[in-house]
Amino acid sequence: MNSFPELSETFIRDHILSALNVSESVYVGAKTIKSNTQALEGYHDIISKVKIFEIGTFYELTKFKALLSLINPFNFYDFLLLKFNKKDFKKKILNKRFKKLVENNQIENIHFHFGDVAREFLKVIGPIQNVKIHVTFHGYDIRHLSQYPQFYTPIIQHVDTPIAISTWNFKALLSAGFNSEKIKRINNPIDDKFFSTINVKEKQSLIKILAVGRLEKVKGFDNLLRSVSLLLTLLKEKEVEIQLTIIGEGAERQNLEMLIMELGIQNVVSLTGSKNRFEIKEMYNQSDFLVISSLHEALPTVMLEAMSMGLPIVSTSVGSIPYELPDDNILCSRNEPSEMVQGLEQMIFLKSSWDAIGKSNRQYILKEYGRDVFETILGLLY
């Protein structure tokens, strides 16, 4: 993976926890290792059982190694690479050190998260004898395939198991040239025991709407804010009050704050910044339904977590969402803000059905995305 741990990539953390239950030992490699304690809050005892290494250190070049190249004629070619083509030298170092790691620790399976990471890596190391290569493709790593359909051609032969997390992903991998018989549909796991309703919520007059995601343009939060502004006008006549909470941090914060002031909805909308999983769970539990306003998505984990918590969903119809969202929830066009207004209003006036929709969503998660289901599949894969 690119970096570990990431607050927004809970599916990787959950995969690691499941892998510990079906494997004798688990190694976690990332291009960058972060000291992000918030992302692993509550998991440190379990994660301590994992051996973590930073792939970036495999590229390290030292003056001592350069000196060895000078005095050892067998290393002269390496010296030329170091002096005139550092990129190829780094690749050679990576290949040698990584394969040594695999051999010394008798690793039998390598599972990449994100296709672009696998592509960068496998182009260097190629196949490894007696080691199975699995790659889970998520969202951003396949979104560009319509423009660059041959992006993964260099590594197709090296991947034993291309993994699609949704129907949309499956179709994208087919278009990229992967063999349909090799592609496996494996849903990202949801910690359904953790993300379960704490207590029955009391019905309140104030409608609490929740959105969770990075504050980036692709999440469409500006459209959501404009929709909420229009919705307030409609609801004023019906004496219905709403509150929108957006959890997340990112480059668009200042622009969103300015838009909130411009629309005059600062008393209705709050940007909370990043939250840990305990805080997010509590916000799920306090909210009436989740809204997703993304312009592009594969399959948002926050949607699955909210469904596991028994929340109804209002979402734009993008990526795999229309394939995975049960019928009683509400889909809107990403290009029609008026549809988002209608979708939010419709969900608000489905108040008497919230519990039934939420229970149905919870049952769907247990059947398709539960941890036990994932671990059974993972055990067969490895």
Automatic annotation (TrEMBL):
Pfam entry (one): Glycos_transf_1
Top-level taxon of origin: Bacteria
Keywords: Transferase
Residues annotated as domain Glycosyl transferase family: 204-359
GO MF, any single term: glycosyltransferase activity
InterPro entries, A to Z: Glyco_trans_1 (IPR001296)
The protein's name: Glycosyltransferase involved in cell wall biosynthesis
Organism from which the protein derives: Nonlabens xylanidelens
